[in-house]
């Protein structure tokens, strides 16, 4: 079985951009950890892979949509770790499979489907029991991969940064990355999460719940900025596309438009409006 060779610690790049004024911006390049299991996906999955083995499972079952990066990453991580994977996909099967699901199958993942009504109840005991009765014993990983072990993996990120910083930012889907990062900051540091979902106020509660699950306590070192979802998950606008093209031209980095670009757009907007004092050092996590 090929080895999963990850690049840790991930690089830290300095951004030179006249729009920053007196703010210093660093990019934590978690997107370079591994081409198939990048960024927070690896940080979330590594402890869960270990937990599955410790608990005696040789298969991981998880959930996602037809274009889910989490499904792709879990399939790849299981392949390299020698664990079988099952992806429970929202909605009906559509053939031919899209690139994401084709990749998952190429990495050995078994796909099964739930209609959208049932999928909304995927965490209900009866639905989960039915899946496990049909598919057999599995280590169950939640949609998006956020749970206690995942949060503990994400909490390792700030410790890799050997330069002083005041603020660290990340995009938010399920809240696990923010929960972990915010739990391991030093005095005076704070974290800002940029939700990519419209109406994601539930994350205010979810981040705290994940911290309790992972560490048995909560931290108040974080905030959420709900202003930059651009219409909701996997939604985009001409303004966002223009920002992505401009950032690529300036810095040679193509931002993922579902997550990273929304965070970076929001961060540059906040810098432009004077939200950060001159001399502030900000780390933005690309994953």
Describe the model.
The protein has two domains: 161 residues, 3-Layer(aba) Sandwich (Rossmann fold); 80 residues, Rossmann fold, CATH 3.40.50.1100. Helix content is 37%, strand content 18%. A six-stranded mixed β-sheet has the order 1-2-10-7-8-9. A four-stranded parallel β-sheet has the order 5-4-3-6. Strand 4, helix 3 and strand 5 form a beta-alpha-beta unit. Helix 1 packs across helix 2, helix 1 crosses helix 6 and helix 6 packs across helix 8. The longest helix has 16 residues. The chain is globular, with a radius of gyration of 19 Å.
Secondary structure topology:
Elements lengths: L11 E4 L8 E6 L9 H16 L4 E6 L4 H13 L2 E7 L8 H8 L3 E5 L1 H4 L5 H11 L3 E2 L7 H7 L12 E6 L3 H7 L7 E6 L7 H13 L6 E3 L13 H14 L8 H13 L8 E6 L1
Parallel strand pairs: 2-10, 3-4, 3-6, 4-5, 7-8, 7-10, 8-9
Antiparallel strand pairs: 1-2
Instruction: Provide the number of structural domains.
Output: 2
Can you tell me the CATH topology of the largest domain?
Rossmann fold
- Please give the number of β-strands: 10
Strand order of the largest sheet: 1-2-10-7-8-9
Largest sheet: 6 strands, mixed
Strand content: 15-25%
Please compute the radius of gyration using only Cα atoms.
Answer: 19 Å
The secondary-structure class comes to: alpha/beta
Mean pLDDT score: 96
Order of helices and strands: EEHEHEHEHHEHEHEHEHHE
What is the CATH-assigned architecture of the largest domain? 3-Layer(aba) Sandwich
Helix content: 25-40%
Shape: globular
Span from first to last CA? 26 Å
Low confidence ranges: none
Separate helix tally: 10
- The CATH C-level class name of the largest domain: Alpha Beta
């Amino acid at each position: 079985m090929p080895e999963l060779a990850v690049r840790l610690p991930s690089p830290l790049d300095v951004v030179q951009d006249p729009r920053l004024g007196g703010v210093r911006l660093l990019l934590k390049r978690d997107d370079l950890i591994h081409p198939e299991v990048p960024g927070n996906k690896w940080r979330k999955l590594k402890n869960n892979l270990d937990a599955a083995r410790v608990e005696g499972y040789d298969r991981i079952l998880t959930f996602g949509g037809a274009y889910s990066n989490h499904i792709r990453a879990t399939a790849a991580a299981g392949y390299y770790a020698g664990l079988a994977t099952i992806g429970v996909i929202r909605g009906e099967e559509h053939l031919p499979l899209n690139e994401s699901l084709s990749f998952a199958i190429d990495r050995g993942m078994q796909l099964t489907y739930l209609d959208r009504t049932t999928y909304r109840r995927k965490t209900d005991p009866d639905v989960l029991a039915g899946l496990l009765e049909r598919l057999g014993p599995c280590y169950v990983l939640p949609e998006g991969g956020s749970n206690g072990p995942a949060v503990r993996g994400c909490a390792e990120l700030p410790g890799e940064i050997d330069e002083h910083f005041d603020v660290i930012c990340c995009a938010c889907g399920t809240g696990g990355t923010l929960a972990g990062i915010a739990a391991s900051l030093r005095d005076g540091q704070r974290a800002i999460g940029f939700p990519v979902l419209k109406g994601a106020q539930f994350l205010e509660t979810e981040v705290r719940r994940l911290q309790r699950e992972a560490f048995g306590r909560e931290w108040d070192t974080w905030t959420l900025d709900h202003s930059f979802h651009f219409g909701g998950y996997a939604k985009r606008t001409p303004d966002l596309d223009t920002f992505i093209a401009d950032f690529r031209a300036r810095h040679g980095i193509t931002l993922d438009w579902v997550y990273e670009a929304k965070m970076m757009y929001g961060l540059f907007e906040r810098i432009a409006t004077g939200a950060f004092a001159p001399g502030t050092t900000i780390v933005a996590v690309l994953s």
